[in-house]
Amino acid sequence: MSVSPTDRYRDDVLSGDWRVPPRGRSVEVPAERGLVVEEAETGWCGAVLRVEKAGGMHVVHLEDRRARTRAFPLGPGFLIDGKPVVLTPPKASALAAVAAARSAGSRTASGSVAVHGAKARVASGSRIYVEGRHDAELVEKVWGDDLRVEGVVVELMEGVDDLAGVIADFSPGPGRRMGVLVDHLVPGTKEARVVEQARSLPGVAQHVRILGHPYVDVWQSVRPERLGWSSWPVIPRGRPWKHGICSELGWPHETQADIASAWKRILGTVRTYADLEPALLASVEELIDFVTEPGG
Questions:
Q1: What is the C-alpha to C-alpha distance for residues 129 and 163, in angstroms, rounded to an integer?
Q2: Is the predicted pLDDT of residue 30 greater than 50, yes or no?
Q3: Residues paired with 112 in a beta bridge
Q4: What beta strand segments (E) does 146-241 contain?
Q5: Which one of 26, 71, 132, 201 is CB 3.0 to 4.6 Å from 59, fit for a cystine?
Q6: Per residue in 203-237, is it b (16+ CB within 10 Å) or e — as a string?
């Protein structure tokens, strides 16, 4: 008996895997650090920071392009490239590798080999001066361990306008070196003129090293990728630079407390020296070498 071409039921509609969801079936994927996933229900997209146990369940912490973090229950409900996945705890081999790296790779945030159990050395006569509190906090976060081992204290200048006076008050000399880190040290700026005058003072050439970076503010020395940018935005002249940056990030910026909070969030994205721009790294490392040089 022949089948009519118009017979709608000539094929078995139940044949094949008709229960497969439109996006396909979920597959298990270990939640390794750096893996980018999307939480299907909320649309939150971010990279895996860590997996931990909280409240009797495993949760995964994701960091989005603006360095915001959020935790979700580990398991189903995630997407990778639009495909459903079930996040599982990292493989034992990966956890072992991380543990080994932490014990054997014992390095400070600056990349130096960590000295375990070492007590902070009594402060030496030499010092490193920076322009403001944010500069000091960044130096402390990345180089603090190294400076404590060397006994070097970081001091605040609260601006560079009276650099000559700060140098005179410090009284640099043998065994008492002074390193100075200056923001926005580029030709033609006020900072460049102030530094040129300070370098001409008697005794400065031998006992004082003044270096800087080209960034408008030390905030800009943090790699923009840590905030989800390919480059730092250009803020129009006449508008406070930090306020403009906070606006670009969608953060409050009406009060000084808002600005302080914004800096804490930016500083929180800095994990090691690799999150900073080379120009700042080079200057700080040279200043540390200068003030800790034997016989200096």
A1: 10
A2: yes
A3: none
A4: 153-156, 178-182, 208-212
A5: 71
A6: ebeebbbbbbbebbbbbbbbbeebbeeeebeebee
Paired with 209 in beta bridges are 179
CB neighbour list of residue 125: distance below 8 Å, 6 or more residues apart: 175, 176, 177
The fold of 127-222+270-292 is: Rossmann fold (3.40.50)
In the predicted model, what is the mean pLDDT of residues 265-286? 93
> What φ, ψ does residue 69 adopt, rounded to 5°?
-120, 150
Fold of 27-94: SH3 type barrels. (2.30.30)
| Measured CA angle at 212 (ends 249, 255), to 5 deg | 35
Q: Which pTM was predicted?
A: 0.62
What is the amino acid identity at position 188? G
Tokens representing 218? 């030390």
Domain ranges of the chain: 27-94, 127-222+270-292
